[in-house]
């Protein structure tokens, strides 16, 4: 039997409070899967599997959000019946008709789940408060995930579904050891320090292999002798323009988890598995929170 705990911040009475048609938001799957991989790479695991994006799971998450569900426990039961793990996050705006959803909101929600790693210790489990959303993200056996986001009046709700994480060993979600030292026959390769399938095997249709093919090296023929070019003394030297370095992908994905309000005060935060941020986006206040669904076994 499962117990569900729903944590809200500042606006508990409006969270998922209306039955309306959902406005589905197009997500950048590459950014979401990359963020999950970064959290999975950060642990020293000998059997961590390199997760892949699943359009099937993403479509199922869209279906679950299509009517802006008012009962989160129904979502929990639907995921449980499908033998899937599920994380839920949300954002509530003060004035939804005049504010645009920030582009980095989905990554911010993933980072809020990831921040629960402060509550986890290997062999001890969740040492304080909740850490189950984080455990679903870094469970070694999880190899497919799909997410969806929908706008429901003043709320934006995001659901991520995970395959093979219905029964997580809270104290040992992965094996401690050298990277890729305990990969299985289904995931024999090692990519980015994680176990991966053979190139082209077990990947969704249309998804390219992560590991590029080695280019063939051909010997370069020796240049034929030639006269040096004649130098024109009146030719001015070429102008060299400084090329600015492009920001790294990690910098692009960084999410500012603190902001100042219009009056200059720091936002209120909570340590019980939830975070709210009062900031400015396009000149209007945005209240960001998270509803964290805790799927655990009752004693």
From TrEMBL:
Q: Where is the composition biased (Basic and acidic residues)?
A: 241-250
Give the keywords, sorted.
Signal
What SMART domains does the entry give? SCP
Limits of the SCP domain: 27-170
User: Where do transmembrane segments lie in this chain?
Assistant: none
Give yes or no: UniProt keyword Signal. Answer: yes
InterPro entries per record: CAP_dom, CAP_sf, CRISP-related
Q: Where is this region: Disordered?
A: 201-272
Where does this protein have compositionally biased stretches of type Pro residues? 218-239
Signal peptide position in this chain?
A: 1-21
**UniProt-listed CDD domains:** CAP_euk (cd05380)
Q: Give the matching PANTHER family.
A: CYSTEINE-RICH SECRETORY PROTEIN-RELATED (PTHR10334)
Can you name this protein? Cysteine-rich venom protein Mr30
Organism expressing this protein natively: Schistocephalus solidus (Tapeworm)
Its gene name is: MR30
């Amino acid at each position: 039997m499962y117990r569900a705990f729903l944590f809200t911040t500042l606006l508990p009475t409006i969270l998922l409070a209306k039955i309306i048609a959902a406005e589905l938001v197009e997500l950048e799957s590459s950014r979401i899967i990359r963020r999950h991989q970064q959290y999975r790479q950060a642990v020293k695991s000998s059997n961590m599997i390199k997760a892949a994006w699943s359009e099937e799971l993403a479509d199922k998450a869209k279906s679950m959000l299509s009517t802006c569900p008012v009962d989160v426990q129904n979502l929990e039961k639907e995921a449980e019946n499908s033998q899937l793990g599920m994380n839920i996050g949300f954002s509530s705006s003060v004035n939804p008709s005049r504010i645009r959803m920030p582009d980095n909101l989905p990554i911010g929600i993933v980072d809020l789940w990831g921040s629960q790693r402060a509550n986890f210790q290997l062999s001890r489990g969740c040492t304080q408060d909740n850490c189950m959303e984080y455990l679903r993200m870094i469970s070694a056996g999880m190899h497919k995930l799909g997410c969806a986001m929908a706008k429901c009046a003043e709320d934006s709700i995001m659901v991520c579904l995970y395959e093979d994480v219905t029964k997580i060993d809270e104290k040992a979600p992965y094996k401690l050891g050298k990277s890729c030292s305990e990969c299985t026959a289904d995931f024999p390769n090692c990519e980015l320090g994680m176990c991966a399938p053979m190139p082209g095997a077990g990947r969704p249709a249309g998804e390219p292999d992560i590991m590029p093919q080695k280019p063939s090296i051909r010997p370069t023929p020796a240049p034929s002798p030639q006269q040096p070019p004649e130098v024109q003394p009146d030719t001015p030297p070429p102008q060299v323009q400084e090329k600015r370095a492009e920001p790294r992908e990690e910098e692009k994905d960084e999410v500012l988890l603190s902001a100042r309000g219009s009056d200059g005060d720091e936002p209120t935060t909570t340590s019980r598995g939830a975070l709210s941020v009062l900031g400015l986006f396009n000149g209007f206040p945005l209240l960001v929170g998270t509803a964290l669904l805790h799927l655990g076994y009752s004693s």
